[in-house]
């Protein structure tokens, strides 16, 4: 599976996410409203964007795309939803089967979703960094090697309809 927004900005050695990653989250989805809106990570060769709709009917619908000089490189649709006391992250990446991750940690500033049996990644996470930035990452083991791919986003205005 590709990363949540489908392009690697950096590959780093996997580091522990949180000390309590195995604990089940009982946080309501409302605690993740800081994830709504538009985020962007730019490099000299690509632009990675995520846009997430505000909470409605127990869901936060999102989409991501990666573009480069050749055009659209990748995309993914995501759904964060409340399922009883569980928070779920459903990823629908281009050309791959969907995968559903369960939140193990969720609070006002971070969330870590896990699916240990998945090929890669086994974790998808977001952490609020100040008022205008979010660090997203995917991590896990790929072919026996621990990997972490980070997406250092900054908040940007969402595009307006023409």
Tell me what you see in this structure.
With 162 residues, this protein is mostly beta strands. It has a single domain (11-156), classed as Beta Barrel (Lipocalin). It is built from no helices and eleven strands. The protein has strands spanning 11-12, 37-42, 46-52, 59-68, 71-83, 86-93, 99-106, 110-114, 123-129, 133-142, 145-156. A ten-stranded antiparallel beta barrel has the order 2-3-4-5-6-7-8-9-10-11. Strand 5 and strand 6 form a beta hairpin. The protein is globular.
In whole angstroms, the N-to-C terminal distance is 34 Å
On the 0 to 100 scale, the average pLDDT is 86
How many domains would you count in the coordinates? 1
| Helix/strand/pairing category | mainly beta
Question: What does the largest sheet look like?
Answer: 10 strands, antiparallel, barrel
Which key features would you list for this structure?
ten-stranded antiparallel β-barrel; globular; Lipocalin; mainly beta; 162 residues
Q: What are the SSEs and their pairings?
A:
Elements: E1 11-12, E2 37-42, E3 46-52, E4 59-68, E5 71-83, E6 86-93, E7 99-106, E8 110-114, E9 123-129, E10 133-142, E11 145-156
Antiparallel strand pairs: 1-11, 2-3, 2-11, 3-4, 4-5, 5-6, 6-7, 7-8, 8-9, 9-10, 10-11
